[in-house]
Design brief:
Length: 270
């Protein structure tokens, strides 16, 4: 019998009913882990080694209860994947304060509560090795209009993750981030299927040097890598999975449309 690399591990994936979270739960299970999916949405059974739980990570006590349920069913949880997120698209003049706060309630406070509950259960169980992987976005470094709430909340996620890497590293828990670029989740999610137009999708894909949009499996594989025993010395890392779109200005105006470089770019600026 071949021993799968995550055999014996138990993982909790928040926001795992759709998209990246769903792909991650399946990838971890395929690698031998037993997995709990915590989401506001219900979802069909994903397999015998995946428990489906319902709850809001922003509510205090919800993740704690989910961890207790997983411990009773599968054993102590040694992997936490923070994928649950609220990501509205709205500009400064139209977004309400309530909507802005909700993004931070889910993306930041919810992550904090999940990590806190995970660390407490980890210590109570006497574990010596654990993984926290949180999902960020390339918009942290390259923001877009109408995305200030989401991008700034994910910047906070990266800062929290680095802080936890220092606090929890001595306990055997690593804390890392996967930062996706443009990921086409159509066919893998029923949440907001029409968020982007075909023209926008084409423009985003044109900016990716590898020539294709990312897939949920690309993110799931990166998360799985950070959960493997071989990754134990990776801590406080931000792993960009974007096909190289964050490397630089891959798409530039055509020569005919571009202004003269001397006229367009003042000396010393780019």
């Amino acid at each position: 019998m071949i021993m799968l690399p995550l055999h014996g591990s138990v993982a909790l994936v928040t926001g795992g009913a759709n998209g990246l979270g769903r792909a991650t739960a399946l990838a971890l299970a395929e690698s031998g882990a037993r997995v709990g999916v915590l989401d506001l949405r219900t979802t069909d059974a994903l397999g015998p080694d995946i428990a489906v739980l319902t709850g809001d990570v922003a509510e205090e006590g919800v993740v704690d209860a989910a961890l207790t349920e997983l411990e009773q069913r599968f054993g102590p949880v040694d992997i936490l994947v923070n994928d649950a997120a609220d990501y509205p698209t709205a500009g400064l003049l139209e977004m309400s304060a309530e909507a802005f706060r909700h993004v931070f309630d889910v993306n930041v406070t919810g992550l904090f509560l999940a990590c806190q509950a995970f660390a407490r259960h980890y210590l109570a169980a006497g574990l010596t090795s654990g993984r926290i992987v949180s999902i960020s976005t390339g918009s942290v470094r390259s923001p877009r209009p109408r995305g200030s709430a989401y991008a700034s909340s994910k910047a906070a996620v990266e800062t929290i993750s680095a802080t936890l890497a220092m606090e929890l590293g001595p306990l055997g828990i690593t804390s890392n981030v996967v930062s996706p670029g443009y990921i086409d989740v159509r066919g893998f999610s029923d949440a907001n299927p029409d968020r982007a137009s075909d023209d926008l999708r084409a423009a985003l894909t044109a900016s990716i040097p590898t020539g294709r949009a990312g897939r949920p499996a690309d993110i799931a594989h990166a998360i799985r890598f950070l959960c493997l025993p071989e990754s134990e010395h990776l801590n406080a890392a931000v792993l960009a999975v974007d096909g190289g779109s964050g490397a630089g200005r891959y798409v530039m105006p055509s020569p005919a449309a571009a202004p003269s470089p001397a006229a367009a770019v003042p000396a010393g600026h780019a």
